[in-house]
Specification:
The complex is a heterodimer. By secondary structure, chain A is mainly α. Helix content of chain A is about 60%, strand content about 0%. The two termini of chain A are about 20 Å apart. Chain B is α+β, with helices and mostly antiparallel strands. The longest helix of chain B has 18 residues. The chains are: A mainly alpha, B alpha+beta. Chains A and B meet through helix 2 and helix 3 of A and helix 3 and helix 5 of B.
Chain lengths: ~90, ~350
Amino acid sequence: MDNQRTTNARIREFIVKKFPAARKNVLTDDQSLLGSGIIDSLGVLDLVTFLERSFKIKVSDEELTPDNFASVQCLASFVTAKTGQARVSVE
Amino acid sequence: MKLVIRRVSPVDERQELLDLLQRNLGVSQERVFEWRYKMNPAGSPWCWFAYDGNNGAAVAMTSLFPRRMYVDGKPLMCGQVTHFVIDPAYRSLGPALLLQRATFEPVDSGELAFCYDCPPHDRGMSTFVRLGMKASCEVTRYTLLLRSDEFLDRRLGNRAWTKPLVAASNLALRMRSKARLVHGLEISEHKGAFGEEFRVLDRRVPSSGMVRASRSPEELDWRYQQDPAAAEGVDERGEYRVLVARKSEELQAFLVLFFAPAAGVAHILDLFGVQLEETGAALVAAAVSVCHQRNLHSLYAFCSERSELEALFRSSGFRPRERIARVVAYESQGGKLLKQDLHWPFGQVEVGL
């Protein structure tokens, strides 16, 4: 649970720092990132680079869906699932 | 969310295709379907749908239309990506990437020499950035102001004292665009089907070291004679006019004007020929004269940054405005066609369909 909260915080911090539209109001974990225009498709590329570098995961084209990138919460769940998979495959 | 990409027949899936386009483009494509999907002289398009794996609904699509091009002097069949639409709930990079990759299939299988897409804005470049692809050229809109009414109205308002100012300004704009007489060059309007002389011109115009669209009479007829946007009986119908420049009766160049319905503007859609610094300038001056007769307020033109048309438009009084498209091309791995330092003199005819 703590790990998940840390993941949320790191993703939120990146989005607020990188995308000016996210600074207009307090960014909540369930706020829509794509629909509200906080992040556009070029922004998704920046976000992917951040996730891959920060969490040591590889994001495939098929995973770049609104389900995974809709909100901070969706992103954090996606990262948690990916890092969990990585841990299982290492074990 | 799992998406499945499948190649479909645009004829068999006509209604679903039209529904997708209507949902995402907001205008009915019924009129243009026959023209774009069935009458294209270069052949039938490839078409792909993205289906939602959960409910089987078609949620995105794209089409790749074959086009005859010249690449470094060689006539080759290429493809242009158009009708790239994704339902709002599925708009993300993933579905766009899957569809974009699908458009590479006819190139990888050797059916096409290369394919290209013309994203109009930065967001449209995101799939190509992810795929590690760069733009080959950028196309800019140029504007020539023909009347100052609207321009001065916006700045000064429509008042009694502004009327003489507008009249003087309009007179100055008319004087600026006097017809250019070139010895032995005759400018006239071309009506009816495009004949064999256009094929001869297409072959005469140099194409080595560059990538450009072919202008055969079949393609020109399809594009300008059969376009349903200018068909009789259509509401808000546009109109094409073709001006030709001849020397000793031999076709030297042509210019295609499009009058948009009720917009007060005309577009130079194509300007093509030999010795364009001379023939092109005379055709542009003739086009300006036609626009003045119609009391239009602006004439638009389009060209890429390295096109010979750029200097021609500037010297004719046009000013560059916004970028309307980038051109991003794909050829299969190991292909050498586009690796060369080719020149892309693209205009509206190459980026529009």
